[in-house]
Each structure stands twice: as structure tokens, then as C-alpha cells.
Fold this protein.
Amino acid sequence: MKRMEGTSEQEREAKKQKLLKELGNRWLPYLTPKDAEFYQLWQENYSKLMLREANRIPDFLHKEVQQAFLTLRKHGCLFQDLVRIKGKNLLTPVSRLLIGNPGYTYKYLNSRLFTVPWPVEGSNIKYTEDEIFSACTAFFKLNDYLQKDTIQALNKLHLIKSEKNEDGTVFGMIPEFSKSGLDMGDDIELKKRTAYNLTLLNYMDPQKMSYLKEEPYFGMGKMAVSWHHDENLVERSTVAVYSYSCEGPKVIDEDEPNPEGRDPALWHVGLKIAWDIETPGLAVPLRQGDCYLMLDDLNITHQHCVLAGLQPRFSSTHRVAECSVGTLDYILKQCQLVMQNVWDDMEPKTMHLRSLEPSVVKQGEEIHNEVEFEWLRQFWFHGHRYKKCTDWWHLPMSELEGLWKKMECVHSHIYCVLEGKGRRWDKGKKENEFLNSFSSINGNYFTCYNQSYISKILSTA
């Protein structure tokens, strides 16, 4: 099936070009901690960014998480992803691994990533190495810690609203929040927006990158990750990021001009109000073990980027992924909807379907394509990587492939109907409705049939 490029990507590119045109040859201003107005800017325009400095996080958790990063890298478990950007297939400069709830997936830049499951209670997960089990356990502990920390942060925001936080040092900074505060709703809604179900691990060594993009609006220097909103998340959910810059030699290229403002040796998270050219940007330095939270709707109203330092860096980005159509349970239930329309016999020429109503046929073909293009092709393209950590996905994906083969038989049976070789078409059916339901989902499968020929078959069936 031909894949359509998302209009949102085109819209973002159009907005970017419009913004660059308005800027011309000038840079927008941005502030760092050495600027006197930095904290005031943070309070007034970026108050939903919370920095949890490393010394506020338990030492044992630092030790376990940082060792887990190194373990996964040692075992070759971090991979560059092939993603589709602006109509091109590109390898990401950052190596990644998704860890999370068993059976969960995350759609990232048109590529579906499958979780290496962390050891939730009651699970029976076999890892290839004991060290990998320990690493996944460490990120599960970090996830639990960050979830509790996020609930505390959101409750604090809700309570203080426009009042100054007397204990602002809890999060490393002293933000003052707008009078609008947060519409927190009830406890169920709060838990929903903080129930991190996966983490996307990232690793990059800037010294091994031949080219990194320059930040285009503020002149902040080289970017590891360009300006973006994190996608496919539960609405108004928080994103929590743990940052670990490895120890290593700091080598500054004297031929490279240093960006005005920020220290190019340090990694930073950059923030700006989305598509705004009036408000200065913010560049917040990230030291080893620091963590930051993007609370509530910050990920919607603002964009962020990651500005490269000199040392290699890991990060663990904990998210509440929107998984209503992204879990193994979901896709297996979809398959069962198709199978409910089939009698026991799975041979195309002798098969009987319970219904040939256009809506039923259309639903079946949509699920058929969803299984193939959104799951099987995506998994087997990346499949080798998961074997380095666990074989957890092997059995369910084999089951899914078996269900896909049965749906192929259903697909072939419908062709038999079109050719008059299977179940006879009932007189009086709206042939065009049936044809359109089938061909709209499988347009490229119809190359051997023209519409007038199929209509003739249906009219005589």
C-alpha cells in the first residue's frame, strides 16, 4: 500500500520557512543562566519546565541507571533508527532503544518501535543476559521514581498557582506560575497524565558525528535533536528526561566559532514558544545526573531541542505514550474482529464469509493492511535488534503473522467473489458500494482489473 505523507509535516516545514524568512539574517535572542534576566524569563514564559538537579536524586538510583546505560551500550542494544523525514528515509544521528510495558509500541517519526519489556510485577520475561535484566530493572525503578516526582510537581503547581513557592529549591529552580494555574481535574486524570508506560533511551557521541545541524533561529550552536514537539503522547501528559553525560576528554575545535551565550562544552535543552519570534529562547545546561520535567501542556505550547556538548551523552525520556492503537492486545483483538466473519474453512475457494456487507468488507481489509504495514513489516524490519535483549516478541509476532495469513485467504476469497467463482453475489446489492469499499483500501491490488470489467462481473454474478 502506498503510504501518504502527513500534512502536519508539510505544515511544520511551511511554518519554519515562514519564520526564517521573517528573521532574515538576524538571530532571535536567547538567555542562559549567566544572563541577569534568565530566571525571570523562565518564571514568566517557561514556568512548566522543572529542573531536578542531580543532587536531589538518590545516589543509589544514579549508580544503577548510569550503569544500565553503559551495560546496554556494551551489549550493542542501542540502534540508529531509519525514519522518514520530509519524504526521505534517514538514519537518526542518535542511537535509541525503547523499554517499557510488555506488548507496548511507540510510533516515532513514522517508525513503530517495540518495547523491550521491563520486569513488571507478574511478568515472566526471559532476557538474553542477566546484565540486561538488571539494566531494564534500573529503568523500571527510575520510571517509578519519576512518576511519583511528577505527581508531586503537578500538585505543587496546582496548589501554589499564582503564589510564590517558598520551597522552590525542591526542583532546583524557583519558578513563579501564571494565575491560570493548572486544571488538574480529579486524581484519576492526574494519574493518567503521569503514568509513564515507556522510556525512549538515547545515546550520541558528538565527537564521532561528521556533521550536526546548526540551530537555525537563535544561533545556539550544534543540535543533537532539532526543534520539535514530542509526538503520540496522552494529551497534556508530562515528559520526564534523565540526562547522563559520560566522562571523557573535552576537545574544543578552535576553528569552530563558539555560540554566543551558552557553553559549547555542556549539553543543554533549548526551549522556545512554538512559532513565536517575540519571546527570547531559553538554553538550560544539563549536568551529569540532572533531570527535567516538561509539565502539563508545555510540550504542546512550546518546542524543545537538544543542544550538543562535547562529551558522549545518554538520556532516558519517560513518556505517557498514547497506545489506544499501539499495543499487542489491541491488534490481536482487531484480528479477532476479522475472524468472526469467517467460517472454519480457510481455503479461498471453499471459504464462506458470514457477511459481504461493504462496511464489514472494508473493516476487514483495513485491519488486514494495519497488521501488515503497521506491525509485521515494521517489526521484521527492526526485528534483529530485539533478539539482543529478549525473545519476548517472537511468539506473539509469529501468532500475528499466522492471523495475517488467514486474512490473506479472506482477501483471496473476496477476489473469488468478484470473479464469480465463489459465493454468488445477491441480486440487488449495490455493486459500486462494495467495489468502492474494497478498492479504496486495496487500490494498488487492482492493477490487473479495470473497473468496467469488475462491474460487469458483479452485474452478472
